[in-house]
Write a structure and sequence with these properties.
Length: 378
Amino acid sequence: MKQMMKMMALGASVSALAALVGCSQAGPMATAGEFEVEGKVYGMPKAEVFREDYRGDAVVGDTMTASPHLAKLDYAGNKTHQVRLDTLSQKVEVAPGVSYTAWTFGGSVPGPVLHVREGDRVVFTMKNRSDEAVLVSEPGKGAAPFYRQMADNPYQKPEAAISPMPHSMDFHSGTVAADDKWRSISPGETIQFEWVANYPGVYMYHCGTSSVLMHTAMGQYGAVVVSPKEGYPTEADHEYVITQSEFYLQQVGESYIYDHQAAMANNPSHVTFNGHVSALMDQPLRAKKGDRVRLYVLNAGPNGTSSFHVIGAIFDRVWYEGNLENEWRGMQTVLLGASNGAVMEFIVPEDGLYKLVDHEFHDAERGAAGALIAAPAP
């Protein structure tokens, strides 16, 4: 108890000092009520729900990227990340000629990738902007890397849409009281809360508003990569993020809409890597002979499993869920249930084309396929 009280007092002092000097980016700040167990931080402050006149970027954060990109962590130790990820509706394409009005985080499906380090703190803000048309195609000055990467490769052809609906955010990477932090907010409301990345891993985030199946299948999911504080024991030449997911769409006239019966029956119309059947075919991953490639793979589901495989390669190392304590060697295929993730590394044996597939071939034939091209640098 004495140690806990000391933490509370320390947190209050540090917060007050930070407020005076305006250094919210300086490093993780303990707050009153927090406590530690084996170096992991628990007891976050209550979430706040409010209304604000905010019309800025829907994605804010210098380590927020569009798949398959992963931001470099160019700082030592730990820091506090100020992250905004507004929920909004967008018409997106998931296959040539197949578009639907998705519910999204930040305007893409999957949503942006958040990269932090074990021990970092995330102060998260989300406004429910499903009742307004928000453009995500024009990167502004100082915008998150996500915007430039979306503009450089707009394979989902996003268009602003309006579809008012309550939404919420469930970070699997956070250890908090779900009924407080993950609560639903109505269109026009904003929620703000924080969490500490206590465990390294490849984590899913998604909307937790009922029906969770519907909200997830409509497009509200993405990946958080928490790198281990001590780093990986290997040095990768390339790092890529891949999120597998299913879509359940039916054609009505010239449009496509969500099919809940198909979702309940686990009968997807499309299964994709990074939200489009051509995402990693038209823009294949790149490497050279002898390179070590590190993949951060998340199976977002919402229903199916993934038997992730690279044709022509064997995974030299696999860290299941992205935790160094869970190491496998010499894996041909990695089985991921819905919401499971893993870090997978392989050595590129020679120049050539390496196909990435879900080895459950009914999923591969629905679109869960991509490519890595190994060739000398031009």
